[in-house]
Amino acid sequence: MSDDAIPEFGSKAAGGGVGLGSVSLGAGGGRTLAEIAVILLVAVVIIGGLEFLLGWYQVPEYVLPKPSAIAAAFVKELPNVAPHWGYSVVTLLSGFGIGAGIGLLLAAVITQFPFVEKVITPYILILVTTPMLALVPLLILRFGFGYTPRIIAVSLATGPMVMINAATGFRRTDSAKIALARSYGASVLQIFWKIRAPMALPMILVGLMVGGIFGLLTTVGAEMAGGGFGLGNRLTTYSSMIRMPEFFAVILILSGMGILIYVIFFLIGKKWASWET
Amino acid sequence: MTTRLSIRDVGKRYGDVEALKGCSFDIEAGHIVAIVGPSGCGKTTLLWGMSGLHSLTSGEILLDGERITRPRPEIGLVFQEANLLPWRTIGKNIRFPNEVKRTRPDEAWIAHLLARTDLTEFQNRMPRELSGGMQQRAAIVRALALRPEVLLMDEPFGALDAFTREEMNRLVEEIWLENPTTIAFITHSIEEAILLSDRVVVLSARPGRVLSDYPVPFPRPRDHEIMASREVFELTNAIKADIYSQTPASRKAMTA
User: Which of A34, A107, A190, B251 is most buried, judging by how many CB atoms fall within 10 Å of its CB?
Assistant: First the structure.
């Protein structure tokens, strides 16, 4: 875009306005106490119902363990599972950190050069849509059964996702706001930090959240593919030993981690990006 | 009278479109000049050229005899719509210019401006929590926060309803009476032009040049009685006639 174009006023920032709201599963609005009570009641009904029905029909534990058995296994096995939980967190955090860092940096730089962006975008799209999990066996061949193949897979899964969303954010240039900053003599760097970055933040947070969930997925998948540690490895171990209560206890931990990722970015968005609703 | 801004033979081309051609006029220090003209006549282009944000194809614009090539600290700009940064509170929006320039805000002056515009209690609010008129008032406070010697306004109140608009005109008049700076503003409202300005410059259809230049000699503040007077009525009609002579329909009628 030429510097000389008169910005259009009154229109929304160009390039789409997908905020965190669109993935917030309706969590945006405040809930009343009654609503929370109903949500809890549903949980009690489902868990209690499962407990009762599984006992009534005498469903064998290797098909589906009772909620009480899962809870007991969770408490009992926690000391054994905890280190593996730690290994998974290490894999996820390092892979996510590397991937998101590179993704953000690339998005910020590439959107400054429309030509480069046009050339690179299809390849990034391929990276986003290809399940990076598929590469894990190959990575294991090359890097062995340690952290390395897992962290590479996780950063490959998160990086492009973060990048493509952040790029959408950085592309939403509002030339009127940039002109405002320029009229006060703002430098290119000031325009980036004071206008472009805050404007891109809602989209960046969406990218980080989805990237985080993708990262968790890839972490577990990579751990299942090989190597003797991590929560994914626990899943394959417990299922091969038909220890279903322990298996489901690990699933519980994983869904807790997923929800935590969501909640963290939801709260960050509420604090720093709530101007866009 | 000293000349503050001098527009000399200014031309601007966007590709095949010639927006301005041979546009010349001066703005004296401490004067308010309204720029009117048919839509698409290059008014905004001219103002952005004066602000130093846009380059010119030909001619030059001088501030105190010095050519404007980039945004100047002496010049403040008010945009169409408030153009507040939606992720900042009103207070932080108003101090944004100081932040960019890395200077300390003149808190006493800002407090005065906020009181003047009834925004004192709204400093911690986000822009979206304010009405259109309040947002535009905040934008004016932001533009005045650095005490610019020249204020350029690009259809500053075009998006507001008629009553809010008149309120804003009164506010600008009052602030100017307290603190006479040089103001150039674009408007589509002839009433607004006459209410506020010392001169009304009418631009021709594209490519824009000065078609006519009317002095507005009425005393200030211009109350409803003055605005309803015969002289204002006649001036309004003269300006209207000039602008209508530039619309495509009337141009066709003249050549037919």
Answer: A107
